[in-house]
Amino acid sequence: MKKETSKPVVREIMMEFAHLTGLLSSREKPRRYLWTDAFAVCNFLTLYQQTSDERYKYLALRLTLDELCTIYRIQFPVLRQNENDTWYDQNGRIVFTVSKGLPGVGFSRSEWNEIKDMKSENVSRTITDDTQPGGPRERTINYTAPFDRCNREADYAAAWAAFEKRGVKQE
Fold first, then answer.
1. Is residue 113 predicted with pLDDT exceeding 90?
2. Could you tell me the CA-to-CA distances from 140 to 17, 100, 119, 122 in Å, in that order?
C-alpha cells in the first residue's frame, strides 16, 4: 500500500479506536489496555506529525499518568510482581528474581536472604554456562552491592514530568 493511499485508512482505523476505547466518547467502561494505548499514542503522534492536525496530538495526549499506572497495575499483575521482587546490582546484573521466566538467574531465595542487605561489598556466584557454542563452561559472576529494584511507576512519573517540562500538557 502506498503511503498516500494508506493515510485515510489509518485515520479511519485510529478514529474508530478512539471511539471504542473512550478517548472520544464518554463510555461507561472504556476498553483501555497498556499495549493498545502505547500503540495508539505512537500512531496518533505519527498522524499528527504527517498532517499537523491538532486533534491527533490531542488524542495522543489523552492517556494520563494515573490511567497508565492503573492499566499497568490491573492488566499486568504478574509483571508487576516480578518487577517488585527482581533485584539488580550496581552494574545492572540480576542478583535475585522471582520471575518464572528466568530460571537459574541470580541467587536462590535462601542465598538472597543472606546477601540482600549488603551495603558495598562484592559477592560472586559460579555457574555452568551452556549458552555459547562449544558446550558448557564454568563462569563466575561478580555482583556489586548495594542492590536495587526498578520502579516502573516511578519511571512513568519521571517521563511525564520530563514531557511537562518540555511543554507537553495533558488535556
1. yes
2. 50, 23, 21, 12
Average pLDDT over residues 113-126: 95
Rounded to 5 degrees, φ, ψ at 148 are -145, 160
Give the span between the Cα atoms of 65 and 159, in whole angstroms: 9
Task: List the chain domain ranges.
Answer: 3-75, 80-144
Q: Which grid coordinates are listed for 36?
A: 493498545
Tens-digit pLDDT profile for residues 52-99: 888 888 777 777 788 778 878 887 889 899 999 999 999 999 999 999
Residue pLDDT, tens place only, 21-48: 776 666 555 565 665 676 777 777 788 8
Distance of alpha carbon 71 from alpha carbon 21, whole angstroms: 13
Cβ neighbours of residue 106 closer than 8 Å, sequence gap 6 or more: 87, 94, 95, 96, 97, 112
Dihedral sign computed on CA atoms, order 72, 73, 78, 79: positive
In angstroms, the Cα distances linking 107 to 89, 101, 143 are 12, 15, 11
39-64 exposure pattern, b = at least 16 Cβ within 10 A, e = fewer = ebbebbeebbeeeeeeebbebbbbbe
d(C-alpha 115, C-alpha 164), whole Å: 40
